[in-house]
Design goal:
The protein is mainly α and 145 residues long. It is built from four helices and no strands.
């Protein structure tokens, strides 16, 4: 249970950072340097981050699946998170469907940020697994001696 809580906190932090970055970049691109980030937007971003972190636990936490199933789970996860972020982005005026360029930029940023988050999580998990394997080898060699 503590491991899941640690994963939840880590993913919440990663998503909060990426969505705040997304909002900040879009504000500067669309409204210039005088743009302001309001408390309501921050709260919505934190809510989106919490939902995304919970969905991560539901979709991608299980590491004992085939590569094909993991790919399907990651794509499903991305589609759901993208839908949530796009919906929130529309209502927060992060982009406009009348300005297709703003929507394309918005989607590109979401895809990039989600890819970075998933790849970063994969790298952290891989490093953790490698360290555990190394420690197990050391323990095994110590037990044999």
């Amino acid at each position: 249970m503590n491991e899941k809580l640690d994963v939840l906190k880590a993913m919440f932090t990663r998503f909060s950072t990426q969505f705040l970055l997304l909002d900040s970049v879009l504000l500067v691109l669309t409204k210039g340097k005088s743009a302001r980030l309001y408390a309501a937007e921050v709260l919505v971003i934190l809510g989106i981050s919490a939902i995304s972190a919970l969905l991560y636990l539901l979709f991608l936490y299980d590491k004992d699946v085939s590569k094909k199933k993991m790919l399907i789970m990651q794509l499903s996860y991305f589609v759901i998170v993208d839908t949530i972020v796009t919906t929130a982005g529309y209502f927060l005026h992060w982009f406009s469907f009348q300005n297709i360029k703003s929507f394309i930029i918005f989607e590109c940023i979401i895809i990039g940020l989600c890819a970075i988050t998933i790849l970063y999580s994969y790298k952290v998990d891989s490093n953790t697994a490698r360290k555990i394997s190394e420690k197990l080898k050391i323990l095994k060699s110590e037990q044999e001696n």
